[in-house]
Amino acid sequence: MLHDLVISGGTIVTATETYKADVGIKNGTIQTLGYDLLGSEKIDASNKLVLPGGIEAHCHIAQESATGGVTSDDYRSGSVSAAYGGNTCFIPFAAQHRGMGLLETLDLYDSRSLNSSVIDFSYHLIISDLSGNVMEREFPKAVARGVTSFKVFMTYDLLKITDEQFLEVLHTAKEYGALTMVHAENSGIINWVSEKLIKGGHTAPRYHAISHPALAEVEAISRAIMLSKFVDAPLLIVHVSTPAGANLVRDARNEGLKIFAETCPQYLFLNRKDLDRPGMEGAKFMCSPPVRDSETQEALWRHLQLGTFDVFSSDHSPYRFDETGKLSKGVDATFQQIANGMPGIATRLPLLFSEGVNKGRITLQQFVRLSSTNAARTYGMLPQKGSISVGADADIAIWDPNLKRVVTAQNQHDAMDYTPYEGLELTGWPTSVITRGKPVIMDGQLVGDHSHGKFIARGKIDLTGIPGHQALELDIEKNFGANLTS
Ligand code: DUC
Ligand code: ZN
Ligand code: ZN
Question: Global pTM?
């Protein structure tokens, strides 16, 4: 058979295997895995690794925060930066702010992503306003559009929902086979400490971390797990930043609960000392939850090695270090007035490859799971995405495992003016990236087309093998079903 494109001579790595073979691509999907394949076009992958393209499952693109700041990356620059980082698909957030409907929110993000992305995409829908029966009227329609993951916040005054509303989201999502995601930090602790700090004149970026103590995360993760357990609904805890929080996740799993979790590079590679940089420099390293200490970094690596975390995501939240972003309230802004978040969509996978695979902390199979396959499974895209197998989308990243490169703001190809990893030398980089059979990056050059990336409608969450929990007090089917009459 004559393929449209053949990737020849490389070493294929999947979540379970490493072997040498050619990949034959036709009509955007993988048609053949074999030897001496014929193709109209050929990419020589000798001495390279051929991996499922990365799936970036947590990033903020063309998104307003509740306080009005807008991320610097849109779907054009964000998707290009993601592709340079070895990604073939990403799932940014579509943020419902109060007063907006859920479908109105999705329409807005559809207009922002239209003809803009060089890689495929979907959205997680943030829910901050449950008024007007949106859960009954609009939630099912969002799921029918292929949006099957929903994020809620336990903190931030303009976003947070009550425990009652959290239960409602968990319960409704469960009914429709969707996944709830949560930003788990205790709002009361953060607000109380912040007020005291500000009153005491402690306003520098470093106090952001002090106002978001580890216990705030641990309390909220614990509560979130209990709420999910009570209604036996799947829940994914995003950006876990503490060993105690990760231990709660591990124990919940061990108990058979439907708990999933994510951590991010900043919690493994950055720490509180970065926030102590002079002047406003520390603002570049502000994110929520905050980066912590070196013991935390080591403990989170161990959780990553042992499989506590299903997904490893960048939490790319790009705010420039200028008056459009971090410094929008001036150079004397308090930590409460500085946008939270840092860029990292292009460094997520090179960091994990260099410091994980090349330093012997994780295997190549673990790398593939954490970079792609687990996200595809968790977010309802497997086997279309996240695997190199016959019939899957031809989403492929070709990696040179020995290539050394120094990270600079410029080689992120995003709309940012800094990277928190400036000057770090990493070994192992993606050199070519192919989305649905079309080259996006070839030998380090952008060749992709902004109308190629398409919205991926996602399926239900796969809970096979997870027993869950039946609350004795609560028979959801009997007491909460649609036919409830008394
Ligand atoms: N939560 C995120 O997921 N990203 C940026 C900041 C935040 O609070
Ligand atoms: Zn969050
Ligand atoms: Zn985020």
Answer: 0.97
